[in-house]
Amino acid sequence: MHYQSESHYAHGRPARLGVLLTNLGTPDAPTPAALRRYLREFLWDPRVVEFPRLPWWLILNGVILNIRPKRSAHAYAKVWTAEGSPLLVHSRAQAAGLQQRLAAACTGPVSIALAMRYGTPSIEAGLRELREAGAERLLVLPLYPQYSGSTTGSTFDAVAEVLRRWRWVPELRFVNHYHDEPAYIAAMAARIRAHWAEHGRGEHLLFSFHGVPRRYLLAGDPYHCHCQKTARLLAEALELDDDGWTIGFQSRFGREEWLKPYVDGLLKGWPGEGRRSVDVFCPGFAADCLETLEEIAMQNRELFVAAGGQHYAYIPALNDQLEHLDALAALALRHAAGWPETNPDWDGRQVSAAEEAARQRALALGAQA
Ligand SMILES: C=CC1=C(C)c2cc3[nH]c(cc4nc(cc5[nH]c(cc1n2)c(C)c5CCC(=O)O)C(CCC(=O)O)=C4C)c(C)c3C=C
Ligand SMILES: [Fe+2]
Ligand SMILES: [Fe+2]
Question: Is the four-CA dihedral 80, 85, 90, 92 of positive or negative sign?
């Protein structure tokens, strides 16, 4: 490996930008053994389960890893595809779409790697891939629109844990959140309108976000606030009345109190109150995954229908929709703008005709943001 050789860092050549696109991660197979490996890594993360280590180790290894893998494997099997876990399949498509857009818009060389916080492809493998491509500048883009210590913060830990062992640490920029990014809000609004145009419209729209323990909110985690703002902006973009939409939190884990209102509780209660027609969208999930496809599109539908609900539609996540990829590309480009050689327009120096054409494409992407 010639990472530090001159060939990668000739004078006058623009530094290569490496973009590490990350998401949560997923098991390698819908089997109890794969689930056990995945859940052990996930649930041992002190950012995810903030609980004293010794008692938690006993509960995790003594109880949870003996019960949950089998149950979760069964749930994953319901949504698994020929290409693998939905989360991984969508994430790969997102990485490919982003690579294409950034290559077109950046004047300097750019590489993208996909990495998962838990499981594979690992954060370490992704960082290595970028290093071997010669990336001197690293932009980490976790696909969590709303910041939480349990997700975004934990991704930072994993990146830092790898970089602390590197001799030459790259220049680093870490996207903290994009919960109120206009292009992301617009992409979601377009997704929802397109669904309505094709499948008809329910009478009420539920925005379902993954929950976290309420304790994390009280300790200062901005996640709850970010979710509220995303939902409000999305409701505004869709021109919904205040009583036309509701925010809720799904995917509870463990016995303590989580962010409320709980989505399953809302859906069980609504038919009895006369609300029998709902559409559900999950603005916090950049890609469809177990939590949207199995929990929302299957389990919660059953709850709602069993309680007397009549119309229940799950509106798919943004996945690799063009507007989504354009929004992410524009976001990445704006962050990369702090590195002048990546986008020469920002330092005002003379650019060639080819660079100018690329700059115009970058600005067009940015203008959509
Ligand atoms: C979108 C943001 C997410 C937050 C915030 C989050 C917090 C969080 N999650 C758990 C426990 C589990 N989550 C699981 C699956 C899962 N979680 C997210 C996203 C967020 N989690 C996604 C995208 C997925 C799906 C992954 C996939 O493979 O499709 C699971 C595993 C599934 C299961 O066994 O039920 C657990 C467990 C906690 C405890 C937590 C905050 C403290
Ligand atoms: Fe989760
Ligand atoms: Fe779940």
Answer: negative
